[in-house]
């Protein structure tokens, strides 16, 4: 009997060991499969996010080009002929706006689930493709009509005259930049410092495009000639915009200086009011905000030094906002609203300047500016819509400051995108993490022009070996 019990116990022990081993093996395999699945999902999601970002950039550029195309169509063929085109462009903008909103949700500080990220990125891709496809038929129809209209050699000569006219403005623009460098800091001039060189590169591209247009016209390849000529005209327009930005810089800088003066005075008033609060109330966050604002004001350029009005305005605005937020809970609501009304005009002016700076970067450089900068810009512009109709001044100023912050972010991200493009010796590159920069100016031009041609102006043009010679 004892032997039987021993045998049963031994069998049960063996079975128990077997069960434990089996469970361990199953768990190990299950964990391995789960990790493999999670890795695959992460890789697929990364690829989807890259496609969504590229789709946003391409759709935004296509819509901007289509907006120009609509203007050309109206000028060439009349308002009535462009009715359907205008409706298609409106629908495309609505879809792109929704895509930007989804991308903003993906970029904000609120964590998103894997399912949400996948769903929203797929929706972005779908919306962007839909936005582009709604314009394809219209742009193709007007491209065909314009091809016939642009066959005449007089059109090629007109573009060449424009190229020469803009080229004549390059020396004055360089002189103007030198003059500005005597009055403003390097950081202030950074957005326009490379404009003359980049404008010159665009004009070289435009001149080569007219040669291609002429050769294609002689070969009876009318559609190719029209596309090349349009690329020349668009490149010339962008070169002129870069030069105009130098002329308008000082006006914007003066406006920023005026706004900075008002915000400095406002900041001193807020500092005085904050210091009147009881010490026990100030201790901690308020005292820290007071110190930060005082340090920011102290760091402003001394009289006679070369200033950076836009950068200084952004710095004071951030510190001013931080102090205002810190004392908000200790301020009577009525007093706060009255103060907000006084600050609202300055806040809106600041937001409009930040948005204008970001918009200028997107319009001047286009393709190298990626989806995140464009998303911030779209969100900033949306914040300002109807802000003057807002009845609560506190809500209005929060919106204005958010718009200013988003505009500043958009400009900063756009400049980072352009710096990334400078590191690419071969034209348009996928968006990615920050790199080590340090390429030559000629590579910058190649990157901008390569993206310009490949990204939209010459879509569907076919084999243009001559352009390869230019970019090579």
What features would you describe in this structure?
This protein has 472 residues and is mostly helical. The chain has 16 helices and no strands.
Helical content band: over 70%
Largest β-sheet summary: none
Number of strands: 0
Distance between the first and last residues' Cα = 94 Å
Provide mean pLDDT, rounded.
75
Q: Name the overall outline.
A: flat
What portion of residues belong to β-strands?
under 5%
Order of helices and strands: HHHHHHHHHHHHHHHH
Evaluate the radius of gyration.
29 Å
Please work out how many helical segments DSSP would assign: 16
Low-confidence stretches: 425-472
SS-derived structural category:
mainly alpha
What is the topological layout?
Blueprint: H1 2-77, H2 83-107, H3 114-149, H4 153-168, H5 170-181, H6 186-189, H7 195-218, H8 222-275, H9 279-282, H10 285-298, H11 309-328, H12 333-365, H13 371-384, H14 393-422, H15 441-457, H16 465-471
Helix pairs in contact: 1-2, 1-3, 2-3, 2-13, 3-8, 4-7, 4-8, 5-8, 7-8, 7-15, 8-10, 8-11, 8-12, 10-11, 11-12, 11-14, 12-13, 12-14, 13-14
């Amino acid at each position: 009997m004892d032997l039987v019990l021993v045998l049963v116990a031994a069998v049960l022990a063996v079975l128990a060991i077997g069960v434990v081993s089996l469970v361990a093996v199953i768990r190990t395999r299950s964990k391995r499969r789960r990790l493999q699945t999670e890795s695959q999902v992460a890789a697929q999601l990364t690829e989807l996010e890259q496609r969504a970002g590229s789709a946003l950039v391409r759709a935004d550029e296509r819509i901007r080009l289509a907006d120009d195309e609509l203007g050309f169509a109206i000028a060439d063929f009349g308002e009535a002929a462009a009715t359907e085109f205008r409706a298609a462009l409106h629908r495309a903008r609505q879809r792109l706006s929704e895509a930007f909103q989804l991308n903003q949700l993906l970029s904000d500080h609120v964590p998103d689930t894997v399912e949400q990220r996948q769903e929203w990125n797929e929706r972005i891709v779908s919306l962007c493709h839909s936005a582009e496809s709604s314009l394809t038929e219209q742009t193709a129809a007007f491209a065909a009509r314009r091809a016939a209209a642009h066959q005449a050699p007089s059109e090629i000569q007109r573009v060449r005259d424009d190229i020469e006219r803009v080229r004549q403005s390059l020396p004055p623009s360089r002189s103007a930049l030198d003059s500005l460098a005597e009055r403003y800091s390097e950081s202030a001039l950074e957005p326009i410092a490379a404009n003359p060189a980049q404008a010159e590169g665009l004009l070289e591209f435009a001149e080569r495009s007219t040669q291609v247009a002429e050769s294609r016209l002689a070969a009876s390849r009318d559609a190719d000639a029209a596309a090349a000529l349009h690329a020349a005209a668009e490149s010339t327009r962008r070169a002129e915009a870069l030069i105009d930005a130098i002329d308008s810089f000082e006006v914007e800088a003066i406006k920023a200086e005026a706004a900075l003066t008002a915000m400095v005075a406002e900041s001193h008033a807020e500092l005085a009011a904050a210091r009147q609060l009881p010490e026990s109330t100030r201790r901690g966050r308020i005292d820290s905000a007071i110190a930060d604002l005082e340090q920011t004001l102290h760091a402003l350029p001394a009289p006679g030094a070369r200033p950076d009005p836009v950068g200084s305005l952004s710095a004071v605005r951030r510190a001013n906002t931080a102090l205002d937020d810190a004392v908000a809970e200790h301020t009577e609501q009525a007093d706060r609203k009255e103060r907000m009304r006084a600050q609202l005009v300055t806040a809106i002016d600041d937001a409009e300047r930040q948005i204008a700076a970001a918009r200028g970067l997107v319009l001047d450089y286009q393709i190298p500016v990626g989806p995140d900068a464009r998303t911030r810009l779209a969100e900033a512009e949306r914040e300002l819509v109807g802000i003057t109709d807002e009845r609560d001044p506190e809500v209005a100023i929060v919106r204005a400051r958010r718009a200013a912050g988003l505009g500043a972010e958009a400009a900063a991200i756009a400049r980072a995108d352009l710096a990334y493009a400078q590191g690419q010796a071969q034209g348009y590159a996928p968006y990615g993490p920050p790199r080590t920069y340090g390429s030559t100016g000629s590579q910058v031009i190649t990157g901008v022009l390569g993206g310009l041609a490949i990204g939209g102006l010459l879509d569907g043009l076919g084999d243009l070996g001559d352009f390869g010679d230019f970019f090579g």
